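Researcher: Let's run the pair from yesterday's discussion. Sequence first, then C-alpha cells, for each.
Model: Starting with the first of the pair.
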Amino acid sequence: MRHIEAGRASLARGDWEQAKRAFDAALATEEAGEALEGLGLAAWWLDLADIVFDARERAYRIYHQQSNRTAAARVAVWLAWDTSAFRGEHAIATVWLQRARRLLDDQPATAEHAWLALRSGVSALLHDGNPEEAATLAAKAISVGDAIGSSDYAVAGRALHGYAEITAGRVGEGRRTLDEVSASVLAGEVKDYVLTGLACCYLIAACDRIRDYDRATQWCDRLKESCKKWGLRPLFAVCRTQYASVCMWRGAWEEAERELSAATDELAACRPAMTGEGFARLGELRRRQGKLDEAMALFDRAGTDPIASLGRAMVAFDRGDHKAAAELVDRYLRKLPLQNRTERAAGLELLSRAQIELGDGVDAQKALEELRDIAARAQTDPLRASASLAAGVVFARSGDPASARRHLEDAVDLFQKGGAPFETARARVELARVLGRLGRLEPAVEEAQRAIDDFVQLHADLELSRARDVLENLRTEKSTAPQPEPGNQRGGLTVRELEVLRLISIGLGNHAIAQRLFISEHTVHRHVANMLTKLNVSSRSAAVAQVVRQGVAGDSC
C-alpha cells in the first residue's frame, strides 16, 4: 500500500513520471487493481497507449473477479474513452459504456454514476449529434455530483449541459449555465485535472458552435496556461485545435496554421484517433486560401469528421459544381437531428445558396427559413450575419435586388462587427453585385474594392480572383452605361428593362444577360420584346441608340 499511496500523491501533484514509478514498484510485489488503475492513469497522462490499455484491462478483470462493481464500472468508462480517443473505435467504446451501465444498475449513487453519465453524454452529443440526450445525461451527472457532495462532477456536468443547450439552439440558457461554470472554475471549485480540462473544453466548444470567439479566446488562453503548467498534453492539443478556429475567424491565418500543425502533430503522437478535427480545420483553412486540391486531401485525411464532410460540400460549391454541393451538404444535414440546431447552421447557409444556384427556389427558401429560425433563437451576431448573407443571396438570385441589398448590408455590418474579415469580404462581393444590378455603380465599385483589399491581406486567392472579376464588370458597366440628362424620364421602361438594356449596350447576348441577372433566357427575351414595343423600334441596337439619344435613364442606369 505504501507505493500505491505514494503514486496517488504524485498524481495529485501532477507528477506523472513519479506516479508511474510508484505504481510499477507496487505491482512488482502484487498485482492489485488499485495499482493497475493508478498506472493506467499515469500512463494516460504520459501518452503511453499500450500501457494504458494493458493496465486498465487488467484492472477491470481483477475488479470484476472481486465483484467490485463500482470500481469495474469506473475503469470500463475510462476504457470507453480510451478506445475512442486512441483507436477511433466508437462501436467498441459504446460496448464499454453499456458494460459500465449494467454494472452500476441498482447500485447506490456514487461518483461512478456521474462519470458514466458524463462520458455517455459526450458520446450522445459528439458522435450521435443528439443534444437532448446529452442534456439529460448531463443533468444526471449534476444531480449525482450534488448528492454526493462532489463539486468536480457537478461543475463538469453543468459545462456539458450548457454545451448541449447551446447546440440545441437554447443559447440564452446555455450561456447562463456556462457563466456559472466559469465562475466555479475561476473560484477553484474543481480540483480534478481531468474534469477541469473537460469543463474548459466544453466551454470552448460551445463558444465555437455559436462563434462567440471573444469568450472562446479567454478560455483557450486559460486552458493553455493550465495545460503547460501541469503537462496536460492531450487537453493542450485539443485546445489548440479549437483556438485555431478563433484565429481563422479573425483573419490570423498564419497563427491558425501554426496552432493546427502543432496540434495535429501532438495528437498524432498521443491520441491518433483524435487528429480528424485538426486535419479538417486545416482543410478549411486551405479552402479559404483557395487551395482546393490541398483542402480535399486534408478532408480525406480527416475521414468522417463533420467539419470535413461539410468542407467537401463547400469545395464542390467553390468549384461551381452546385449539384454536388447540394447533395453533399444534404447528406451532412441528414446526419444531424433537427434539434442539433447550431451545428446545422453552416450547412443550411450552404444548402440555400447551392439550391438557388440550381434554380430551386422552394428548397433554397426552406433551408433559409430554418437557418433564420436558428439565428433568431440564438440571438448572436455571427449567426444573424450568416442568415442575412444567405437571405441576400437567395433574394438576389430570385430577382429581388432591393430586398437583397438590405440583407447583404446587414451581413456586412454584422460580420465586420464580429471581426471576421473573410466573411465580411464575401458579403461585400455579393453586395457589390446587387448594387450594380440596382444601377448604384459607385457604391458597388467601392464595396468590391474593399473586399479585394481584405482578400489581398488574407491571401485568399480564389475569392480575390472572383472579387476582381466583379469589379472589372462593374467598371465596364459604369463606363458604357447611358448617361442621363437632367429632367429625362424612363420612357416607360421598368428598372429591370433598363438593366437588360444596359447589358445589351455592352454587347451581351440573352444567355449572358440571364446569367448576370440570375433570371431565365425566356424572361430576358420577354423584357427585350417589351422594350422594343415601348420604344417603337425593331432591333436591340436601335433601342440602345434611342435610349442614348433621348437620355432615357433611371435609378438602374
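Model: Moving on to the second of the pair.
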Amino acid sequence: MNGALRAKLNLLLATSLAFALGLGMASALDLTPVSLAAGDYDPPEWIIGAPPIQGGDIGEGFADVVSRIAPAVVTVYAEREGDPANMRGVPNAPDEFVVPWSGSGFVISSDGYVVTNNHVVEGATQIDVELADQRRFSAELVGRDPQTDVALLKLGAVGLTVAPLGFADSTRVGEWVLAIGSPGFGLGGGPGPLETTVTAGIVSAKGRSINILQRRTNLAIEDFIQTDAAINRGNSGGPLVNARGEVVGINTVIASENGFNQGYGFAIPIDLAREVIDDLIEHGEVRRAVIGVLINPVTSADAKYYRLDQVAGAKVQNFSADDSPAKLAGLEPGDVILGVEGKPVMSVPDVQRRIRQYEPGETVLLQIVRRDKTRDEVQVRLGAPPEDGTIERAPLPRTATRDRGGDALGIIDVEPISTSNRNRLILPSGSEGIVITEAIAGGALGRALNSRIPPEDILIEDLNGVTIETPEEYERAIAGLEAGDVVSVRLLLPAGPPGNWQSQIYSVEIPER
C-alpha cells in the first residue's frame, strides 16, 4: 500500500470515528450548562388546538394525524468542535475536527420558529434545519433552557406548515399518542437518511421525575409525560402528538439499558415548553421563580415517619445556595412540603408546577411538616435562579450484597471520625458524626439509598434529629428498634469528585429479620 493511499484511509477512519461519536452524542443527555442566546424576535404565530380529524375511525390507524403533523417535523443537524482526546490511537488523526450529529424538532410558527431539545443543539458551532420537503436552512439559536431541556430556533423562512399545539394538562393517562421524529442519519449504514418516523403508544404516566436533568443542574424541572410509544436515537426534539393531531409534548429521553427503546420514553409537556419559549422570545432568558431547595419525592417510609395520611409531598434535602429564599425564610433540611398556598402537593413536579405560576419577588405560603413531626407554615419570598445553577456529580460505584449479619439498619461496623479516615475520605472540616466502614448493600439503609450510593464510607450525622458523635451513641440510638419502626437518618454523602459531600435526610424503615 503506497503512502498516499494509506493517508487517505487514515483520514477516512478518523472521519468515520468522529461521525460515530456524533451519533452517540445525539442520543445522550450531555447536559453541560450553557448561557442563553437572545435577540429581538417577534412572538410566534401559535396555532392552538386542531380541528377534528376527518374519518376518525381507529381501524384506519393514524394516517390522517400523520399527514397533518409530519410536514411540520424537521431534522436538526448540528456540529460542534471535537475533542482530540477522543481520537487517541487513530493514526494521522487531525488536531482539529468537527463532530456532526442530528436530532428532531418541529415548526410551531409559520414564520420560522422551531422547537427542539437543548441537548440536541448545546455547544453547537453550526445548526442547520431540514424541512420535510428537504429544503435546508441555517438556523439561528434564539435561546435554550438546560433546566427543562428546551431550545428554540429561528429560520429565515415564512409560510411553513405548523404543528398545532394541545394541552398536556388535559392529556389523560391511557390516551393514544404518536411519537414523530426525523433523525436524519442512515440506519445501520443504509443508503440514505432516516427521515420522518412514526411510532404509536399510549400515555403511560404523567408528572414523572427521573433525575436525568438533575445530574447537571440542581434547578432542573422534571415533569415528564411517560409513554410506551417508541422513542429512539435521533428522535429527541420531535413532537408527541395526541389522536386529535395536537402536540402535547417534546420527545426527550428514554430509559434503557442498551440505548434503544424498551418501552419507557419521556416527553416534556408542551405547556411547560410554551412557558419557556414565551420567556425566551420576550426577555431573552427564562424568568422563573425559585424557592432554592433540593427536594426529593416522599417515600412510604417518609409517610410513616412524618405521620402523613398518604405518600405525598416533597422532602427538602438541601439548599441551592447559602442565600436560598427557602433557607432565608426558615425552611430546614428534612422539612416536607405538603402544600403551596393551601393547595396540597403530591410530588416534586407538583411543587415545581405550583411555583412556576409565580414571578420572582412574589411570596408564597408553604405548608410543611418538620422532622419533629410538628406542622408549620413558612412564607417564602421567591427569587430568580442564579446564572449558574449547576452541580457536578460523578457516578458512584455500587457495592456487592453481603450475606453477613448487621444491625437493624444493615450496618456491620462504624468508627468515629479519625485523622486517618478524614484524610482518606477528604471530609470537610468540621464534619460531625460516625463513619460507616462496613455495611450490607441490601440492608435497610442500603435499600433506602436505592443502590445509588454504597452504604459504606459515608457518615451518619444524626438519628431522629439527635447528633451522633461516637459508636456508643449510635448503638444506644438504635437499641430497641423493631421491625416496622421508621428512623430519620441524616447522612453525609459523596456528591461528585473526591472531597465533595452533601448532607441529606432519609427515612429508613426497619425490615423483618
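Researcher: Give me one sentence on the second I can quote.
Model: Confidence is low (pLDDT under 50) at residues 17-39, 186-192, 388-404.
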